[in-house]
Amino acid sequence: xxxxxxxxxxxxxxxxxxxxxxxxxxxxxxxxxxxxxxxxxxxxxxxxxxxxxxxxxxxxxxxxxxxxxxxxxxxxxxxxxxxxxxxxxxxxxxxxxxxxxxxxxxxxxxxxxxxxxxxxxxxxxxxxxxxxxxxxxxxxxxxxxxxxxxxxxxxxxxxxxxxxxxxxxxxxxxxxxxxxxxxxxxxxxxxxxxxxxxxxxxxxxxxxxxxxxxxxxxxxxxxxxxxxxxxxxxxxxxxxxxxxxxxxxxxxxxxxxxxxxxxxxxxxxxxxxx
Length: 274
Ligand code: C2E
Ligand code: MG
Ligand code: MG
Ligand code: MG
Prior knowledge:
Elements: H1 2-36, E1 40-49, E2 55-66, E3 70-72, H2 74-84, H3 87-107, E4 115-119, H4 121-125, H5 129-137, E5 148-153, H6 154-157, H7 162-171, E6 176-181, H8 188-193, E7 198-201, H9 203-206, H10 213-228, E8 232-235, H11 241-249, E9 254-255, H12 266-271
Parallel strand pairs: 2-4, 4-5, 5-6, 6-7, 7-8, 8-9
Antiparallel strand pairs: 1-2, 1-9, 2-3
Ligand C2E binds at residues 45, 61-62, 73-75, 78, 91, 94, 118-120, 151, 179-180, 203, 237-239, 256-258, 263.
Domain EAL: 24-274
Protein name: EAL domain-containing protein
């Protein structure tokens, strides 16, 4: 009986595994195809200075329009792209696209603001990543080389192997912002040794902050930390005027979120550059 059960379990287990593997292969093939068929695009979410709402930059966010499925959220394919390693090619595409955008705006005579490109942990862990990014950014005209910024999440940066790559990037003058700050577990000693440019406070901390006393206290403590480390702060996911006002009153310099603007198609983003 035990044997039969064991066999039964295996026969139930295997098809599920096979099904998962097949799905995985299919999605990987689709992502590769998506690159070849140019199904990805970047949208640009404005980042603004709180005290005067002036535009200070954009965050580039990837979008995948798959003809059969429609728009697929990055939340649904980025983690998968990381598992299969295809994130490296997608990440290269995103960086090239953001660089091309910066150049296109400059060529049109527009005042260019920095574009922040999201970088995943798997990309940063690749040995040649930092050098390859530096090489590519250096191909831009000098006056545009500081217009590409990298966003790395707190959990990525806190991985032991990250510090080396981070140092190579920041020593080359590339600005790195810490994304989703407040959701992971920062090693504060390590944080003080990183030459970051900005901390992005995660949306989960910002949401309803005018009504959430606990979040207010955490936010104030993290702001003190940012000040001690001479880091400017971008509040993510600001959805209401009350949140924006509270953050401004606390001395948060910058914000991003639906209250100011949803991510924009490149043509709409361009209209903000005047
Ligand atoms: P993230 O880098 O933290 O980006 C912020 C996310 O919050 C974006 O979601 C943005 O559209 C959304 N957001 C902005 N303001 C608000 C707001 O006021 N309220 C709410 N509820 N959401 C807001 P999106 O575009 O779906 O991207 C999700 C995540 O996917 C990103 O989080 C990032 O981790 C990843 N991602 C997006 N593009 C790329 C990329 O090119 N490369 C990599 N490696 N990851 C990317
Ligand atoms: Mg980001
Ligand atoms: Mg974020
Ligand atoms: Mg996030």
